[in-house]
Amino acid sequence: MPSPRRSVIVAVLVLLAGLGFAGCGRAQPGVAFYIGDTRYTEKQLDEMVDEIVAAVPGVDAADLRASAVNALVLRDLGRRVAEEKSVTVPAADYARTAQQLRMPENAELTRVTAEYTAVAGALVETTGPVQVTDKDIKGIYDVLLEAAGDQQLKPYDEVANILRSDPVLPKVLGVRDLLVVHADKVGVEVNPRYLPLTVALGEVPVPLTDGIGTVVDES
Known about the structure:
This is Lipoprotein. It comes from Virgisporangium aurantiacum. It contains eight helices and six strands; from the N terminus they run H-E-E-H-H-H-H-H-H-H-E-E-E-E. The N terminus and C terminus are likely disordered. The chain is α+β, with helices and mostly antiparallel strands.
C-alpha cells in the first residue's frame, strides 16, 4: 500500500486541482509541451526514454515518458519561481537520485529529476504556509486510491488525519499556489496525450492541473 506520508513534500507541491484548459493552444507538429516560449518536442522525449531503456532492461517506456514530461515541467516552472522569488537552489544530488530511481547517474531523465527535486525542496523551505482544505486532502486521497490499484488503501478518514498532521503540508501548498500563478503568467501548454500530468517522488503520484493549458499536436 502506498504510504500517504512518503513523498508528501513533492506530491502536494504539484497538487493543482480544478483544471481549466486555456483554449486550444498552439498547433505544432511533434510538440510535447510549451513553458512560455520554450518548446519541448516528442523527439526530445524519445531520446530521454531511449537512453534509459538501453541501460535498464525491462523498464516501462510509457511510464518513463510520463515521468520525463512531469520532471521537465516541474523543473522549469520551479526554476522560474525560484528566480522570481530570489530563492537559492542547492546543487542537485544526481548520485542519490540515480540510486533512488535505479537509473544511470548521467542519464538526462535522472539529472532532470534531481534538479526539480532540488528546486522543490528549496521552495518548500522558503515559502509561507497556507490553509489546508478538505479539497486538498480529497484530491490527494483520490490519486492515492487510483495509484493503489488492486492493493488496499487505508480508509479516507485515516489517511486524511495523517496528512492534516504533517507540519510540512501547509508550506507545500503555499508552493503549489506559487506554481499555479506562474504557470498562468508564462503560459504552460501540454499535449493532451500527457494530461492529466502526475508526478511522484517515491510512491505518491499527484495531478498537476491548474495553470495548464493544451497544445494541439498536428503531427
